[in-house]
């Protein structure tokens, strides 16, 4: 990454300051300033100071994000976000409370940890969707019933089901309703409808096997 490739907003208006650090940041060439002086200059919209600071801290920022994320491409992306954040929030740095390196490292660590949590949350959502899809497995039982046994046998086997299971099965497999339709018709939660259909189909298969 290089400073020229960063998505940097337009420079801010230079603010007046009576601090020695601010005066030195203006008077001394960027390459000769300390990181703290560079960061103070960045807070005043100095793009040359930012370019120097960028090159100086970029390897350190990447090292922090890479240790947390353990994925170079993702670490480089997060590092870019961190360095843009440095440009935008440089005015929040207080030289009296710590070093520029420590402040930037803290930003990098926080941003990397946030990305880890975001990635984990995304995986958790995918897992929940996958778990919901597993509930459709009972359709395989329905296919087996339809292939192996004729309509008359199914009707006779329905007598082995509870009233609630039979009602759900008839709505789904004889009236052509989806489990969502079954839930709406019966006024029950979708999860309850799926459970009744699954349990009813398993019991129906057993009853049909007894008829064979």
How is the secondary structure organized here?
Blueprint: H1 20-27, H2 35-43, H3 47-69, H4 72-89, H5 100-134, H6 138-148, H7 151-157, H8 163-173, H9 179-186, H10 190-211
List keywords for this structure.
212 residues; single chain; 10 helices; mainly alpha
Q: What gyration radius follows from the Cα positions, in whole Å?
A: 32 Å
Order of helices and strands: HHHHHHHHHH
Mean pLDDT: 76
Main β sheet profile: none
How many DSSP E strands? 0
What is the rounded distance between the termini?
A: 71 Å
Portion of residues in beta strands equals: under 5%
Helix/strand/pairing class, anyone? mainly alpha
Helix content, binned percent: over 70%
Unreliable stretches: 4-18
Number of helical segments with 4 or more residues:
10
Q: Assembly type of the shown chains?
A: single chain
């Amino acid at each position: 990454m290089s400073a020229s490739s960063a998505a940097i907003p337009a420079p801010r208006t230079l603010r007046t300051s009576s601090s020695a650090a601010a005066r030195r940041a203006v008077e001394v060439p960027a390459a000769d300033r300390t990181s703290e002086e560079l960061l103070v200059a960045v807070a005043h919209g100095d793009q040359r100071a930012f370019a120097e600071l960028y090159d100086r801290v970029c390897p350190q920022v990447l090292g922090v994000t890479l240790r947390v994320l353990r994925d170079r491409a993702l670490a480089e992306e997060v590092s870019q976000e961190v360095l843009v954040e440095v440009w935008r929030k440089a005015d929040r740095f207080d030289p009296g409370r710590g070093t520029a390196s420590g402040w930037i490292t803290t930003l990098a660590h926080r941003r990397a940890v946030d990305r880890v949590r975001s990635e984990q949350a995304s995986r958790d959502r995918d897992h929940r969707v996958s778990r919901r899809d597993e509930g459709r497995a009972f359709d395989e039982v329905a296919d087996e019933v339809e292939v192996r046994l004729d309509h008359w046998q199914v009707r006779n086997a329905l007598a082995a089901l509870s009233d609630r299971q039979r009602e759900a099965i008839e709505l789904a497999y004889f009236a052509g309703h989806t489990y969502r339709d079954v839930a709406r018709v019966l006024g029950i939660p979708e999860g309850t409808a799926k459970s009744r259909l699954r349990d009813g189909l398993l019991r129906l298969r057993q009853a049909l096997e007894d008829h064979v």
